[in-house]
Inverse folding.
């Protein structure tokens, strides 16, 4: 499967060590299957005056020895997992996670939930109307090295 990761540099050998903590699915290497989403993300870098490089990879099927989680919808399980990751709290570890992105619109709702302004039910009610982008996070370096293969990079304008 073809996946995309936009950065300020070409990344031929992705790693987990350069990832920030407290992201949607915790520390890991994040990608998307949606090319337009990756291109739009690059506009953040361009607006700051930085280069935007869209890295393209081929992601193999994940071998059975690795743990995998896919959040199909923005439901309570997804919300709780995102909240725990963003707060740095213990949670179930997965080697690869797929699901919706807590982008600006979605994050506003998640943030209000984290602050205690929204109850879990109120947050889920708001999320019901959102159509999030999609992300894949690989949180295991061995899995990255085994299953993710660099194809090319494209400088975005």
């Amino acid at each position: 499967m073809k996946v995309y990761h936009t950065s300020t540099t070409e990344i031929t050998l992705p790693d987990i060590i350069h990832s920030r903590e407290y992201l949607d699915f915790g520390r890991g290497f994040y990608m998307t299957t949606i090319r337009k989403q990756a291109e739009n993300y690059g506009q953040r870098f361009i607006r700051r005056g930085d280069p935007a490089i869209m890295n393209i990879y081929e992601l193999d099927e994940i071998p059975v020895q690795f743990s995998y989680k896919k959040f199909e919808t923005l439901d309570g399980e997804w919300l709780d997992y995102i909240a725990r990751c963003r707060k740095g709290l213990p949670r179930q570890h997965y080697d690869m996670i797929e699901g919706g992105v807590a982008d600006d619109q979605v994050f506003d709702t998640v943030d209000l939930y984290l602050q205690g302004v929204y109850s879990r039910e109120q947050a889920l009610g708001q999320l019901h109307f959102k159509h999030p982008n999609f992300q894949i996070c690989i949180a295991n370096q061995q899995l990255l090295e085994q299953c993710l293969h660099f194809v090319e990079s494209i400088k975005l304008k």
User: Anything to note?
Assistant: The radius of gyration is 16 Å.
